[in-house]
Input
Amino acid sequence: MSVEHNLKLAQADSRIDAAERNIRHVESLLPWLSAQGYSTVEIEGHLGLMSEALYHLKEQRRLIGETYH
Output
């Protein structure tokens, strides 16, 4: 695999990691928002969709890595 491919895969890994951290951060805010009287149902739905999309991206990334190794 070329250096360029390795760099792009490393960037994808970094972005996936950042997305996971961001989702966890927003999830950690839900109890506080709920305690303040805000409805979190819509936020939870969006987080579920984002988590599902991230799962598919991680699977694509895994398959790409297997293809090149």
Observations:
- Helices lie at 3-35, 41-68.
- The chain has a mean pLDDT of 94.
- The radius of gyration is 16 Å.
- The chain has one domain: 3-68.
